Amino acid sequence: SDCRWDGEFLLNCSFTGISTIPEDISQTAITADFSYNNIKTFLCTDGRNEEWILKHLNLSNNLISELSLTTSRNLPVLEILNLNGNAIHTLTLDTPAPAHGSKKYGKVDRLLPALKVLSVERNNLNMVPRGLGLLQSLQTVHMSSNGIRQIDVNDFQNCSQLKDIDLQNNKITKIHPDAFRDLNKLQVVVDLRGNALTTPLPQILITLSFFQLEVDLSNNAW
User: Fold this and answer.
1) What pLDDT digit, counting tens, does each position of 200-218 carry?
2) Three-state SS across the chain?
3) Average pLDDT over every residue of 54-58
């Protein structure tokens, strides 16, 4: 392929016009940049059985519309996943439970256990992806400039390590008062600028009265 490999850590495939992940890429790369291409689908296993040691994966500015992370068993040390600037309307983090099951969703073992940063800015999401709590190491989630309309009580459930949430420039009109209640490690910012909130949210502000926490609610409709 036209990808550039430094022979040690960095694989640079940006601006190469590829539509699929090349089969000849090294699985020893620490950083892989596939940005600004024509990639429409990305399978985390991609037919390969060997584990990658990737820590940073950049898939921004491609043509991805649907993405499932439920088969990502060969990315055990991935820390940063950049999906900005695609056309993602469906991001799957959990799997449907069997029809006879008592729960709507089932757990996925070893779902990106080291992932700290998930960035899905400038896409077509209309809701927070279900199952964020399965990402056990997740600290930062950026979902600005999508079409998210509300924040439900379970959207950030079990996200015990989450420190930074960016939801600015969406279409949010409703936030459940307890949506952020159990996020005891939030310490950077909850960014809700540029949404469609019409009434102040005192219960949320009380819930988020953690030391060093910033909540930005500017440029809303009230």
Assistant:
1) 666 666 666 554 567 788 8
2) CCCEECCCCEEECCCCCCCCCCCCCCCCCCEEECCCCCCCCCCCCCCCCCCCCCCEEECCCCCCCEEECCCCCCCCCCCEEECCCCCCCEEECCEECCCCCCCCEECCCCCCCCCCEEECCCCCCCCCCCCHHHCCCCCEEECCCCCCCEECCCCCCCCCCCCEEECCCCCCCEECCCCCCCCCCCCCEEECCCCCCCCCCHHHHHHCCCCCCEEECCCCCC
3) 96
